[in-house]
Structures are given as C-alpha cells and as structure tokens.
Amino acid sequence: MSAMQAQLRTDYQSPQYTIEQLHLDFKLDEHATIVTAVSQVKQLVAATPQLVLDGEHMKLLSVAIDGEVLAQSRYRVIDNQLIIDVDLASFELTVITEIDPANNTALEGLYKSGGAFCTQCEAQGFRRITFFLDRPDVLAKYTTRVEADKAQYPYLLSNGNKIDSGDLDGGRHFAVWQDPFPKPSYLFALVAGDFDLLDDTFITRSGRKVALELFVDRGNLHRGEHAMASLKRAMKWDEERFNLEYDLDIYMIVAVDFFNMGAMENKGLNVFNSKAVLADPQTATDDEYHRIESIIGHEYFHNWTGNRVTCRDWFQLSLKEGLTVFRDQEFSSDLGSPVVNRIDAVNVMRTHQFAEDAGPMAHPIRPEQVLEMNNFYTVTVYDKGSEVIRMMHTLLGEARFQQGMALYFERHDGQAVTCDDFVAAMEDASGVDLTQFRLWYSQSGTPVVKAIESYDADKQQYTLTLTQNTPATPDQTEKQPLHIPVAIELLDSEGKGIELKRDGKVVANILNFVEAEQSWVFDQVSGPVVASLFENFSAPIKLEQNISSQQLALIVANSSSDFSRYDAGQRLFTSEIFAIADAEAERASDTLINALRKVLLDPTRDPALVALMLSLPAESALAQDRNDIDVETIHLTRRAVLAQIGLELEDELLARYRECIASSYQQDAAAVGRRALKNACLFLLAIAGKATTQELCGQQFAQADNMTDRLAALNAMNQAQLPIVKDALATFESQWHQDALVMDKWFSQVAMAPNANVLADIEKAMAHPMFDIANPNRVRALIGAFASGNRNQFHALDGSGYRFLTDNLVKLNTINPQCAARIITPLLGWKELDGERQALIKAQLQRLADLPDLSRDLYEKVTKSLA
Ligand code: B3K
Ligand code: ZN
C-alpha cells in the first residue's frame, strides 16, 4: 500500500500474530544505538505463512528465530515492513537494529533532547526503535535493559520496576526494568540522562506506598514542586471520585525540553514537555500553574483510562482521550472553580473545535479515515470527545455514570477495546438507552439548534420549539438528528427563576431533544419569560435564538447559573460587535455598558468570574459566526468595543484594579482570582489609551513580584502599543535571555504585536540565540503565536503572513513534520475568507503541495484543504 493512502476504520482486522513477552536491550549511543528485541511470538491464525512487522528509519542488522540467524532469503523489508517467512505456532524472534537518535529531529521514537535520551512512541513511534507489531491491540509484558555511559547518563529509566543495575567496563553502566502489566508498544518509554531528582511518596487508599520521582534538568528542582503536589492531588482525587488506585510501586515523571506535545502517559514513566512541569512564581503565570496541574492529572488518569484499558485501534483514540480529558476537567473543577473551568473548556470548543468542524479536516470524534495518525490528536477527538462523555454524564447522572465506569473496568481491564464497548458499559449499567446517542461518535460537524418560542397568555403556557440541523462537512454529506441534552432555565420579566411544570407537575430542566424538530409546552407560566438555553454548554452545538440585548442583560444580571450569566454576556458582546460591523450601530449600547458596570461592582461575585465576564469573544470565534465580515473589520470593531468599555468604565475599572492589588504574593485560588480581575481591568484601561494607564502598566511591569503580573502588564502595553512597550520588551529580554521557557513568553509577545512591522520583528527574534527551529516550544511560541494569535497581521492583504508561515513550514516539513502539521492550521480554513485572501493562501498551499519530499502529515492536510 502506498504511504500516502488513507486507512479506513472499517478495514480493521484482528492480528494474525501476537507478541506476549518482549525483552529489549539498548546499547545507547548518540548516532549508533543498538537495539536487540527478543519477542515471544504466538500465531493466532493457523497457517499464516508470514509475520509482518512495522519498522522505519532504522538499519536492520539481523533476524533470528529460536536462536538461529535467518538467511537473508527468509525475510525482506518492503515499504516500512519487515516480512519474515515463518509458519510456527509459537517461537522466539530476535531482531537487531541500529538507530541514530541524535539525528532524529522528528522527536518520534528514540531521540536526544538536549543531553538526554528519551522516547515518544504514541502513536507509531515504536516502529522507529525496532521492527514490531506496532498496533495497540498487541499487548506484551516488557523487560528492558539499558546500557550507557555512566558519567553522561547517570539515570537509566524505563517502565515498571527496576530489577537490576550495575557498573560495566569502560565507564558504562546498566539497568534492567520490568513492567508487570501487559501494554501496547505505544506506552513503552526509555529515558537516560543526568537530572536533579525530586522524590516523594504517596500512600494509596489501601495502604500501599508508591515512590514518586520527578526528574528535571539540573538546577530546576524547586520548579518541580508544583507538579509533584499536583500529582499527589490527582492520585487522591482519582481514588475518591472514580474509585481508582495506582497499581505500581513507582511513578516517574521526566521533564524534557524537546517534545511535540504536552506530555505522554507511558506506563509508570511519563515523559513531559518541561513547559508542562516547571513552575515558580518568578517564571510561570497562574494560567501555567493551572495547566500544569491539569496535564499532570491528565497523564496520571490515563493509567486507568488508556493504559489498563486501551484502544483496539487508533480510530478509537477518543476512547481514552475524550474520557481522560473529561476526567481531567472534572479534577480541575472539583479542586477549583467549576464555572471558571467550564468556561475555559467551552472557549476551546467554540474557538478551536467549531473551526475544525467547519474546515477541511472535519472528522467525527471516532474518525473514519486516517492517513497520518498524528494528525488526529485533535480538539475534536480530545475536547469534543470529552463533551460527548459529559453529555452521557448529564443523561445518566453521577451515580449511574460511575456504575458504568465500574462495569467498563470489570469487563475490560487488561484489554484493548472500542468506543462501542465503552458506551455499551454505560448503557448496561444504567439502563439508559444510548442507541441514538451513539451517533455523536460517527457524525462530524457542529449541529445548529434554532429556538422558536411562543407564549400564550390565555393558557398561561410557554412553548419552546427546537430544530436541529448539522451542516454537511467535506467528509460526510448526510447528517441525522442527534440525541441532544438541553439544559434550560426560564426567567420571568423580573429575572426570577420559574419552576418548569407540565400537567401540573414539576419537570426536570434537561430536555431530551431527539427529533429534527421538537416542541415542549410548559404550564402555569404567568407571564412572558426569557429562556436561557444550553446552560453549562449542555451540548456542543451552536444556538440560534432571537433574543434582545435587554433579555440577554436580564440573564447576565439574574440567572442562577454563573455559566449562563457569562454566556449571555458573551452573546451580548457578539451581537453588539456585529451590529457595529454592519453599521447598524456606532458603538456598544448602554445596556451592555450598564450590565458590565453591575458585574464589575458586584462585591459578591468571584473575581475570577468577573475577569472572564470582562473578556470579549476571540476574533476567531467571532469570525466563525460571521464569515462574511472582513478580518480587519472584526479586529477593529472588537478593539473599539474594548476601548469604549475602558473609557466608559474607567473609574470602576481603576477602583477594582486598586482593590485587587495584593500586599504579598500567594498562589491560592483567591489570590489567583484577584490577579485575574486586576489584570483584566488593566488590559481594558490600556486599550482605552489614557495617558495615566501608561504609567500604571509601567509601574506594574517594573514592580511585579511574580510573572503573572509582569507578563500581564507587558501584554497590555503590547496590545495597546503603548510607547513604553519597546523598553519593556528589552528589559524582559535582558533579564530572561538565558531561560528558554520564559523567553517563549517574550517570543509570543513579539509575535502578537498588533503592528504592521511585526514580521520584521519576528524575523529578528528568529535570530535570537535562544530561538531554535528544531524545538517545538520555540516554534509554537513565535511562529505559531503569530499565525494563530495575531489574526489581523497574519491575514495582511499583501500576503506576507501567509508567505512567512509557509517558508517556515517548508523548513519544518523535513525537520519535524508533526510540528509543521500543527502550526499549519490557520492556513487550512481559507474557504471562510474573502476571495483575495483565498487566492493568496491557495498559492502558498500549492507551494507546499509541490514539495518533492512533502511529509505525510502535511500532505494529508494540504490536499484536503486544496480539494
Ligand atoms: N497521549 C499523548 C499524546 C500522544 C500524541 C502523539 N502524537 C498525550 C495525552 O493525550 O495524554
Ligand atoms: Zn491524553
């Protein structure tokens, strides 16, 4: 099969052979690591005359069966597969390969990150280490022997427990690790390097003592403490909320600087991007503290949802990712503010997932077709996947949902299973019929729900009619009605909540919306009402409801749900921005300004929520609702509304700003919330552009005792393009030029400046000694931030933004295809733009399509986009 041909979900075939035991031996060397893999192979389908193993980017040194080296005529390597002529019920296979970790810039398989060796095997990186049945439904017990130079690599790590170690001749040493749990190859890990070690212990609920070890670059020990504390919280939470206990005697986390994603859940040995581990108040923002806790939790939770029960094939990825994102969101929510966490998750859906659904890469949470698996670690599989789990949770309730989880583990512990298996467990444990609900797994696209409301004063009845329609997507033209849970709240004209009644009885506030069009009648409604629909984003849909600014303001002021209040505020912002863009209004209405004033002055509200309520929808989220409005108009209109708020609420913003200043730095929820509000006020004041705020920003930047405040001041100056921003950027650079993670914030500030010279500054930043195009963090911080975070400049009509991104994609195509395929996203959805920009982007995509060595990662996205 050609390397550029997609695989289909429906083509799944169970394996003909399996490998039950694997002994790996690594003789580590920068350019010539020797890997000896000894597999106990079992034939599952009798009379299968060939064993076919996956492998790429390696030198095959020898193949032996039951100790006997095979003649070259017995095997061949064709199209990244090793085909061995053999037809035995069971045998021992020894494959010896040589690999070059130091030249592995794709960061898949075994590679070097700075001075350390490390691995990344999901999804198909193990096949860059040895020839193997590299598929998640082949589960083997691993032992791993690692040998390396002792001075350079004092720590030799792999999955499970260390069972042997010792010194060897020539300054080398070795360690042997044994993982008692069968696992798929994608969960294999190896790390060798010199680190500082932070260690701790956790006593599980049943009294077992688990050693916790966090490995960080030398000198960074204190920056690991937050991650370690987060890990202990995650372990405890999973016992309490999901009844799940850790299963090995040791849990290790290694932080590395070169990593394509946030982190990886390898059994007993997580490998993390250092950005997702290291934090102290001087270098990390509150958002980063939060993100670290959530990623540490996510990877830990995979130990059960992913590792103990894994995926049968990669089309089932959401089985572990959607579920584990749901679990990490619940963790953050239980430990922090539910509404703030919910808002964060919903913003990811609206800004990124809806865009993916509207673009050329649209796919269901369980994809039907995959060319490059790495392209499907998406907001759809992860975040929409989590929303689908959340809807099941809503339909079943916590108690029955947990019964479903228990049944899932009872049935499938130690197995590789499908999304259907998960839903079946939920259904069987709860008795709730999920037949129609399963469509959420197979149907792509964002459903549009329209609400039609009527009130009958004589009958005292309110009628809600909903229609649902999922627009066709490139991958799928026919769509069917979905089972949509609709959470609803009715407010009377004073803003008081009304009990929902039908036939005189109180009814639940969750409606089961299952038809293309469906109506609900509520009785004993004594006057006209305002309906707040999809409370807490009860389904991942777009709502169309005829609702006035006054009605939205009523919800903002009165809803019993903080989420609904926030959400109505966002809808109010959106409709006013569009009214200005359409020249139906000159400025935001008094209704909006007054609603915000009330929010701002309400002392009973959580400052963290108030901060979010002062934030406008992102330009890209606005663009999705109205792709007929030009990029620049959206940018300028949104900015004008920000400035108007800053000017009209100047006194209130200043007062709250001052009130939120802390006398000393704390890292607890209350302090974080106050910082968020303070900095939201500062931002609006800066955009409003009064001379006094320049001073305020300058002061905060100079005097801040933590990175959150310092960066917020810098960002406000930068977005407002205050004259002092130049000096501030220089000061920041001279203070942090040796710290790569902090410099990433500087790179992003450079990239996001709303100024027509930004590209020249970015080119200069690329020459900074800290910039390295081979490091994905740097690439995302500078090039990625420009393309996705500086919408107006990226889409400049001279095409310079598109050309710049493409120039770098050409480089990354050979250096790190996975990284390239991630930052190309802003180019893919050109169909939403005007004709002039469409032509400019298409020319750049064509440049990529014409590359002689276009990677599979980019090929899949570029061809879909051009199709
Ligand atoms: N499972 C990994 C992601 C692997 C990505 C491969 N391209 C991290 C996570 O979701 O926890
Ligand atoms: Zn995950």
UniProtKB/TrEMBL annotation:
Any one GO biological process: proteolysis
Peptidase M1 membrane alanine aminopeptidase domain location: 227-437
Pfam families: DUF3458, DUF3458_C, Peptidase_M1, Peptidase_M1_N
Required cofactor(s): Zn(2+)
Peptidase M1 alanyl aminopeptidase Ig-like fold domain sequence ranges: 445-545
Domain Peptidase M1 alanyl aminopeptidase C-terminal: 550-867
Cross-referenced SUPFAM superfamilies: Leukotriene A4 hydrolase N-terminal domain, Metalloproteases ('zincins'), catalytic domain
Gene Ontology MF terms in the entry: alanyl aminopeptidase activity; metallopeptidase activity; zinc ion binding
Aminopeptidase N-like N-terminal domain location: 22-187
Keyword field: Aminopeptidase, Hydrolase, Metal-binding, Metalloprotease, Protease, Zinc
Record-linked InterPro entries: Aminopeptidase_N-like_N (IPR045357), Aminopeptidase_N-like_N_sf (IPR042097), PepN_Ig-like_sf (IPR038438), Peptidase_M1 (IPR001930), Peptidase_M1_dom (IPR014782), Peptidase_M1_pepN (IPR012779), Peptidase_M1_pepN_C (IPR024601), Peptidase_M1_pepN_C_sf (IPR037144)
Catalytic activity field: Release of an N-terminal amino acid, Xaa-|-Yaa- from a peptide, amide or arylamide. Xaa is preferably Ala, but may be most amino acids including Pro (slow action). When a terminal hydrophobic residue is followed by a prolyl residue, the two may be released as an intact Xaa-Pro dipeptide
EC number(s) per entry: 3.4.11.2
Enzyme class: hydrolase
Protein family membership: Belongs to the peptidase M1 family.
Record's function text: Aminopeptidase N is involved in the degradation of intracellular peptides generated by protein breakdown during normal growth as well as in response to nutrient starvation.
Stated name of the protein: Aminopeptidase N
